[in-house]
Design brief:
Blueprint: E1 13-20, E2 24-31, E3 37-42, H1 46-62, E4 67-73, H2 80-87, E5 91-95, H3 104-108, H4 112-120
Parallel strand pairs: 1-4, 4-5
Antiparallel strand pairs: 1-2, 2-3
Length: about 130
């Protein structure tokens, strides 16, 4: 049996949730409602942001007409990444930490992977 990707179908949306830090970022990237894959990028140099942009542009080229949605939580890193993403033509949002769902267990059981997945999961509001 052929999968959808083997039949040549393209996705309509690419979702990228980012857990952003001063030194690195972890991106959870998925096509439509597919299972996300994780990519780590170094933010100490401009190369990390450039690599992220290349990855997102490649996905957009592989899926003509798709919309790329990117979200990350507001932090001390500011809005520089947002400005870059918007300038590149992506739909981007910076999320207020106070509006993200959390529980006492989630606060003690935090990982970058879970945070990135939570940001990627905001696809329903983008």
């Amino acid at each position: 049996m052929e999968t959808v990707s083997e039949k040549g179908a393209v996705c309509k949306h690419v979702f990228c949730g980012i857990d952003l830090h001063d030194r690195s970022m972890l991106a959870a990237i998925s096509e439509d409602r597919g299972t996300p894959r994780y990519e780590s990028f170094d933010t100490m140099e401009d190369e990390g942001v450039t690599d992220l942009l290349m990855e997102l542009h490649e996905l957009q080229e592989c899926n003509p007409g798709s919309v790329v949605h990117v979200a990350y939580e507001a932090s001390g890193c500011g809005f520089v990444l947002l400005d870059i993403l918007v300038a590149e033509g992506f739909v981007a949002a910076v999320l207020a930490p106070t509006h993200l769902p959390s529980s006492p267990k989630s606060r003690t059981d935090k990982t970058d992977k879970k945070d990135a997945l939570q940001r990627e999961g905001v696809r329903s509001i983008l």
